[in-house]
Specification:
The structure holds two protein chains of two kinds. Chain A is of the alpha/beta class. Helix content of chain A is about 40%, strand content about 15%. Chain A has two domains: about 5-10 and about 260-385, Aspartate Aminotransferase, domain 1 (Alpha-Beta Complex); about 15-255, 3-Layer(aba) Sandwich (Aspartate Aminotransferase, domain 2), CATH 3.40.640. Chain A contains twelve helices and twelve strands. Chain A has a seven-stranded mixed sheet, sandwiched between helices. A three-stranded antiparallel sheet of chain A has the order 9-10-12. Chain A has a two-stranded parallel sheet with strand order 1-11. In chain A, β5, α6 (about 160-170) and β6 form a beta-alpha-beta unit. By secondary structure, chain B is an alpha+beta fold. Chain B has a single domain, classed as Sufe protein. Chain: A, CATH 3.90.1010.10. Chain B is built from five helices and three strands, in the order αβββαααα. The radius of gyration of chain B is 13 Å and the shape is globular. The chains are: A alpha/beta, B alpha+beta. Bound molecules: pyridoxal-5'-phosphate (PLP) and FE2/S2 (inorganic) cluster. Pyridoxal-5'-phosphate binds near residues 103, 148, 152, 177 and 211 of chain A.
């Protein structure tokens, strides 16, 4: 076993060869600026248009509703800051959830320093937002509901269509961070009923630093950066053509493979979960109840520290994570697991194992064997047994 | 992010376990997390003849418990009381920012175990 076993696909995924292949010509051979009128520019423009059409089709949207961005964080920021700015005459209240990614939470907290009010909806033990609480939180001055489609730490999937329905009944716009959901479950903007949707390429084997924001036709949105006319002046700046081509290629392939991959990954994840539960005592699976993403297993081991377990696995060549990559090293328990109401010992001993298209049956065998050795060893260190 | 010494002491912690009938013992619980260090000492001729511990915590907590036991074994009680978390971290080749708090647990447990030993003396 000289190759490492990568089980941290929720943090990021390896670029798939087909996407790299599609991107390569746009770094050097087709070097034009898509805003230029000459032939070089027009070739870049063609690639940009084709990618936009492809992403729109994947989401059930129209090309004009797709803005290319610099990734998930930027998409979330543009959606939240852009809508609240555009609607600042109408109201100063937004609703989100306690388990959002920092890209949403920190943006909302910043808005609070600017005088907006934010409601952070709690979730139940399975990580799901309560619709009655949402209904009770909607106010006449609410301008946006931003709730993630699927959570990055535990994989819980929200009842987005119902959330959107409820918000729309009150005339409130809906944004969803679908960063983790893309390529793992069907994502159609009309079925979900959302007005804005964020995605980022590097979570579905596309390149890092490239994403898209769906903005439904007629949705009021102000830019958060200013410059040229690119992306309808809502995201000015010369587009990252290689990245966008890679994003569109990876998304198309991920969606073609979705039915087969989601079944395959769920089976691997279920075997991993079942074997952990039967072979290691004092274990808790976090957010085990469906609906959840097929590729994430968040599991807590009592009397073990998650970071210590991560490092023990790392020394065997296996990559997993504790909480989100952003929180790693921050020395704080995961805000997502806290929101689930986990007791301290479960908070401490949580790791996230996230599978992807390169994950094999043998990878699952290897991580199981490693856990069966490292968990008892670390427990012995803690208890002296 | 962790030094080679931290990784070594984490992978192969020294002096782990417990002492049958310790001369002094103390347990320190971290207020923030669920972490704890339970440390035992055996004293002979005024020196720390043996140190053992049980530790639940992160990589830094485990490595600094191990290093504390290594540095303090053989010291007189007063020398051991002067051992600081900074010295433990330094012996480990440094700890990442934000992990210094974890290196406090074991030296603190050692200090309290020595106090426990002294309190037991007639
Ligand atoms: C749910 C979620 N939202 C947003 C992001 C941020 O995306 P990016 O890294 O592309 O900025 C991530 C992952 O990093 C994520 O998991
Ligand atoms: S002991 Fe809790 S983070 Fe180090």
């Amino acid at each position: 076993m000289c190759d490492r076993i990568y089980l941290d696909h929720s943090a990021t995924t390896p670029l798939r060869p087909e996407a790299l292949e599609a991107m390569l010509p746009y770094f050097a051979d087709i070097a034009g600026n898509s805003s230029s009128l000459h032939a070089d520019g027009q070739r870049a423009k063609q690639a940009l248009d084709a990618a936009r059409e492809s992403v729109a089709e994947a989401l059930g949207a129209t090309p004009r509703e797709i803005l290319f961005t610099g990734g998930g964080t930027e998409g979330d920021n543009l959606a939240i800051l852009g809508v609240t700015e555009a609607l600042k005459q109408r109201g100063h209240h937004i609703i989100t959830s306690a388990i959002e990614h920092p890209a949403v939470l920190r943006t909302c907290e910043w808005l609070e320093t600017r005088g907006l009010e934010v409601t952070y909806l709690p979730v139940d033990a399975d990580g799901i937002v309560d619709l009655a609480t949402l209904r009770a939180s909607l106010r006449p001055d609410t301008v946006l509901v931003s709730i993630m489609l699927a959570n990055n730490e535990v994989g819980a999937v929200q009842p987005m269509a119902k959330i959107a329905d409820l918000a729309h009944q009150h005339g409130v716009l809906v944004h969803t961070d679908a960063v983790q959901a893309m390529g793992k479950m069907p994502v159609n903007v009309d079925h979900l009923g959302v007005d804005l949707l964020t995605l980022t390429a590097h979570k579905f084997c596309g390149p890092k630093g490239c994403g898209a924001l769906f903005v439904r036709k007629g949705t009021p949105l102000e830019p958060i950066t200013y410059g040229g006319h690119q992306e309808r002046s809502l995201r000015p700046g010369t587009q990252n053509i290689p990245g966008i081509v890679g994003l569109a290629t990876a998304l198309r392939l991920a969606i073609n493979e979705l039915p087969a991959q989601s079944t395959r990954l769920a089976a691997l994840r279920d075997r991993l979960q079942a074997t952990i539960l039967t072979s290691i005592p004092h274990v808790k699976v976090n957010c085990a109840a469906p609906p959840r993403l097929p590729n994430i297993l968040n599991v807590s081991f009592a009397e073990v520290d998650g970071e210590a377990l991560l490092m023990a696995l790392d020394m065997r060549g296996i990559s997993v994570s504790t909480g989100s990559a952003c929180a790693a090293g921050a020395n704080e328990p995961s805000h997502v697991l806290e929101a689930l109401g986990l007791a301290p010992e479960w908070l401490q001993g949580a790791i996230r194992i996230s599978l992807g298209r390169t994950t094999t049956n043998e990878d699952i065998d290897d991580v199981l064997a490693a856990l069966q050795q490292d968990v008892p060893r670390l427990r012995a260190l803690a208890t002296g047994a | 992010m962790y030094s080679a010494a931290v990784r070594d002491h984490f992978a192969n912690p020294r002096n782990t376990g417990s002492i049958e009938q310790p001369d002094g013992q103390a347990r320190v619980d971290s207020p923030v997390h669920n972490d704890r260090v339970d440390l035992m000492i055996r004293v002979q001729d005024g020196r720390l003849a043996e140190i053992k511990y049980r530790v639940l915590g992160c990589v830094a907590a485990i490595a600094s418990s191990s290093m504390t036991s290594v540095l303090a074994t053989g010291l007189t009680l007063d020398e051991a009381l002067a051992l600081t978390p900074e010295q433990v971290a330094e012996a480990l080749g440094g700890l990442p920012e934000g992990k210094l708090a974890c290196s406090v647990l074991a030296p603190e447990a050692l200090r309290l175990a020595i106090a426990d030993y002294r309190a037991r003396q007639p």
